[in-house]
Amino acid sequence: MNISKLHPLLLLIIFLISCNSTDNDIIEEDDDQEIITDNCYTDQALDSSRGLCDVTLPYTNNFEETTSSTVRIISTNSIPNHDVGLFGAVQGSLNPNAITEQSEVYHITLTPTISSELTSLLSSTGPAYSFGVLLNGVELDPVAAEPFPHEGFDSPNANWEWNLEALNVNLGLDCTNAHVQPTGKYHYHGTPTSFLEHLNISNQEMTLIGYAADGFPIYYRYAYANANSSSSEVIEMTSSYQLKSGNRPGDGITAPCDVYNGIYTNDYEYVEGLGSLDESNGRTGVTPEYPEGIYYYIITEDFPSIPRYFRGTPSDDFRI
């Protein structure tokens, strides 16, 4: 056909049909493959709001720490030593699970060693470990059980590579970044604000606040500028994680799409040397309790707040 001899109106119609054929959200490449365009988006929203902490519990905090020659033993009822948010089956509660006393005993090695590989708190089938326990007996448990596509943690379609980040979505956390499991256990997903206020944390000294499941100590935010000198000034430690740039690679069906914004834990990436801490949000150095030096973790204000990896071997008492 000689296109130059076609009527101008017919040429215009052919041009419009050709343009429209490539302007769909989903382009059929073949019978079993689809390419999703940039119009894919997520229905999850950033939300860092927190509930009040204006409820005094009818329980007393019970925390006991003993040691043998090799093991630190922490016994606790998991009741915090501060006020909490409103939880339980009442109007206005942050989630429907009421806080109840627990009976927890943690055995933590006194001689932790660094392993050749990191152990993640999150496995391919869901949360594997809580991170540790504070000196008030309450667990640090940062990983939510909220995998994509948000049909429930026991969904056969659960993609645990993309798990909601508890600190950046509305999971009913109170002012101290904590909420309650269906079992009634109160636990922290991020910086335990009220607990730290109770300790009257200073920015002029290192403050031990708990122990990780692998036995290494946990400090809050501040450490010696020179890791090998307790006479050096105390400064704020910084995370080496940052938000990824661009868009998630998912199709919106088997994995999320849209821009990396912190809704998912996997929206963040570790960049060696970006901050003062390693991939496990820790480093090796001297501390007031360990003047000979030890590996220790830091809870930071920025992501990940509570570490998501162990440098040592975690105790099975923290297994989820």
TrEMBL record:
Residues 1-23 form the signal peptide. It comes from the Bacteria. PROSITE patterns: PROKAR_LIPOPROTEIN. Keywords: Signal. Residues 106-312 form the YHYH domain. InterPro entries: YHYH_dom. It holds the Pfam family YHYH. This is YHYH protein. It comes from Mesonia phycicola.
